[in-house]
Amino acid sequence: MDIYLGRQCRGFPAFSSDRGEKMARVRLGNKEFRAPGTPVTRAIAGVALVVGGVFGFLPILGFWMIPLGIIILSVDFHPVRRFRRKVEVRWGRWRQRARSADSSASAESGRASD
To answer: What's the N-to-C CA distance of the chain in angstroms?
Structure first.
């Protein structure tokens, strides 16, 4: 999963294009989404999603809210961005190892049946 956080230089958050500046964007795979308007709005939305995700066992809320809240918070907060990136790298390495283990297991089973 490739996540791109569109930002201006010097670490300042990006604002709406009405002011002639870029808006913060989050790219997941091939799709790109705009993050909510201001840094305060993004912080409130991100925290609300993470807190709501903690109560994911309730009927309306879900555990899917936690990663979405972390992605939104990572647009503006460096420690959250660092945490998200570490998790993303570990997940990618785990998937790569799992794929290589599956391919080697299927190759060995193919040899055993010959």
So the answer is: 38
Cross-strand bridge partners of residue 32: 27
Q: Which amino acid is at 51?
A: V
Q: b/e per residue, 34-72, with b = 16+ CB within 10 A?
A: ebbeebeebbebbeebbebbeeeeeeeeeeebbebbbbb
> Contact 72/65 with Cβ under 8 angstroms?
no
Query: pTM surpassing 0.90?
Result: no
The DSSP result for the chain, as a single string, is --EEE---GGGPPP--GGGTSPPPEEEETTEEEEPPSSHHHHHHHHHHHHHHHHTTTSSS--TTHHHHHHHHHTTT-HHHHHHHHHHHHHHHHHHHHHHHHHHHHHHHHHHHH-
Reading the block at residue 34, the tokens are 């705009």
Tell me the per-residue pLDDT of 10-47, one tens digit each, with 9 for 90 and over: 444 443 334 445 677 777 667 787 877 888 988 999 99
